[in-house]
Amino acid sequence: MLDFSVYGQEQQEVYAYKCPECGTLDYPAPMICKVCSARRDPSGVIFSAWEQVPLSGKCKLLGWTRVYALPEGFDVKYLLFAVVEFENGLRASGRLLVDDPQTGMELTAKVGVVKEKVGEDVYGFMFDRV
Amino acid sequence: MRKVAIVGIGHTVFGNLSEFDLVDVMSFASANALEDAGILKDRKIIDQLFVANMGGGIINHQTGIASALVSRIDLEPAMAELVENGPASGASAIKCGFAAIASGMVDTVMVTGGELMRTVTGWKGTDFVATLLHPEVEYNYGLTLPAFAGIFTRMYMERYGLTERDLALVAVKDHENGARNPYAHVQIPVTVEAIHEGENAHVINNYVAEPVRLYGTCPVSDGAASLILCAMDSPKMKYFTKKEPVLISGIGSATDTHCVHHRKDPLDLKAVHLGAERAYKMAGLKPEDMSFAELHDAFVILELAISEEVGFFQKGKAQEAVREGVTRIDGRLPINTSGGLKAKGHPVGATGVSQVYELVKQLRGEAEEGRQVKNPKHGLAVNFGGFGNNVVATICSKEA
Predict the structure, then answer these.
(1) Residues B310, B285: contact at Cβ < 8 Å?
(2) What are the sequence ranges of the domains in chain B?
(3) A115 vs B140: CB contact, 8 Å cut-off?
(4) Domain of A27?
(5) Is pTM, for the whole model, over 0.80?
């Protein structure tokens, strides 16, 4: 993985989005707040852009699988995937780095390269042991 | 609302048809439906064609598929449109046809669903189907439909005590039916010994996405199916004297969150529940009125979960019904009499149409020996799109 600190860049982040009207957090970014119906404008021109809140840290493993039949672009024997719940109640899917997981175990969410494309690395959640 | 009947049905064999082109495969099923309806020569009475297909633009490099098909079977100047709703495209196209007739806009509709998936490698095929997931927070990770089925299956096992043996029993039952269906992709029966208990079971039935094994998933198939629909009050019904009409007595659909992680309880398949409820309400029927069902078992866990969501069994109890043989062809409520997606195959755009084809075949009493349900009155089909985010339920009934 590239060390971004070398180039003065920070590690890529995954963000939740905070509604400016009622403070509700959501991931990924919605276009309309589920709670108060406030609108989000991705360009920030018509309505205010929503605050981005880095989503990482402690989370709980809700469900997982080890997949052997991977799609094109993933040249490994298998990968583990998980659905987790963060302490703020948000949930997310992502890559699981624990080889012998137990449902309900505590994990920590980091951000790393989940897919390598030519000229572009895709960043996303990596869930690991605390 | 006008009553809508199915007056003709057609099907191709499901399997590897990659030597043919997509529109040819769809044309063959469509011509079979015209013939079955007895209107091959009078085909121009069809007002509208709805085509169901998910991946023509991606994996077959073909667009404008409805226009191509209408011309290939010489149906011009009928109206023609494509319906794409992921793996539920087929039943959605039927719903469009139903609505077009029920509203009075047209009298006769052909619905043809088809897919050619084996023209690409398994890796590409898996990738193509996965494009229906959320592109940023699911697809990018390498998550696929089998991956979500794995997560779902484990959660179900942990909560309800489902075992791998139960999953094997569903597969054995589906393959038993599929072996008697000449259109099924896999026409070979399997045993619990071979895929679960035997010494080599873990080799024959290896993991795809733990705890989902090979015999817990459907094959990747090519194929097409076609239906002809007509308004019961239309003068055009005089053309359809060859076969008894079968009514579409109820049809409903519903959606759920695109991202699986947004569901409060990932084991609640709300769109299945609500789609079926809407179909029952339209038909004025209840789950206990159903004589049999075709449920979207792209993964065998889904046959169990869907059968609970549509009200056949209590939550977590479907595996008991399977153990008791309730869902076998000679049981109280046969499920997936065609072999289901598990044995019959799953050409995604064709599947929803193929499920309703099976309902009609059973209600007419035309199913092959050994897989005909006794005196069926009503049948339910559930076509499951995404990982449960867009689901269509259709009820067909013998005309009273």
Answers:
(1) no
(2) 4-121+220-239
(3) yes
(4) 13-54
(5) yes
Residues of A in contact with B208 (CB under 8 A): 67-69
Same domain for A92 and A75, yes or no, is: yes
Predicted local confidence at residue B308, as pLDDT: 98
Angstroms from A35 CA to nearest CA on chain B: 14
Q: Name the CA radius of gyration of chain A, rounded.
A: 17
Residues A82 and A103 placed together within one structural domain of the fold:
yes
B300-309 and B270-283 helices, crossing angle to 10°: 50
Q: Is the dihedral of CA B31, B33, B34, B35 positive or negative?
A: positive
Amino acid at B206: N
Tell me which architecture the domain covering B4-121+220-239 has in CATH. 3-Layer(aba) Sandwich (3.40)
Q: In this predicted complex, what is the ipTM?
A: 0.93
**Chain B residues in contact with A27 (beta carbon < 8 A):** 137
Q: Do the Cβ atoms of B150 and A79 come within 8 Å?
A: no
The helix-helix angle for B300-309 and B164-178 (nearest 10°) equals: 90
Note whether A67 and A124 are same-domain residues: yes
Q: Given an 8 Å threshold on Cβ–Cβ distance, is A73 in contact with B130? A: no
CB-CB under 8 Å, A83 with B142: no
Residue type, position A16, single letter: A
Question: Which residues in chain B have Cβ-Cβ distances shorter than 8 Å to A64?
Answer: 151, 154
Q: Lowest-confidence range among A70-74, A124-128, B79-83, B266-270?
A: A70-74
CB contact (8 A) between residue B208 and residue A69: yes
What is the tens place of the pLDDT at every residue in B201-230? 999 999 999 999 999 999 999 999 999 999
Picking from A67, A81, A98 by the largest number of B CB atoms within 10 A of its own CB, the best residue to mutate is A67
Number of domains in chain A: 2
Check if the beta carbon of residue A94 is closer than 8 Å to that of residue B141: yes
Per-residue pLDDT tens over the stretch B76-88: 999 999 999 999 9
Give the model's pLDDT for residue A116. 83
Q: Yes or no: say if B256 and B272 are a contact pair by the CB < 8 Å rule.
A: no
- Residue A27 to residue B137, Cβ atoms within 8 A: yes
pLDDT the model gives residue A7: 46
Q: Are B160 and B307 in contact (CB under 8 A)?
A: no
Structure tokens at B274: 């609500």
Q: Cα–Cα distance between B138 and B130 in angstroms, integer?
A: 9
Q: Which ranges in B164-299 belong to alpha helices (H)?
A: 164-178, 192, 201-204, 270-283
Beta strands, E only, B4-159: 4-11, 48-52, 79-83, 108-115
In angstroms, rounded to a whole number, what is the distance separating the alpha carbons of residues B375 and B244?
15
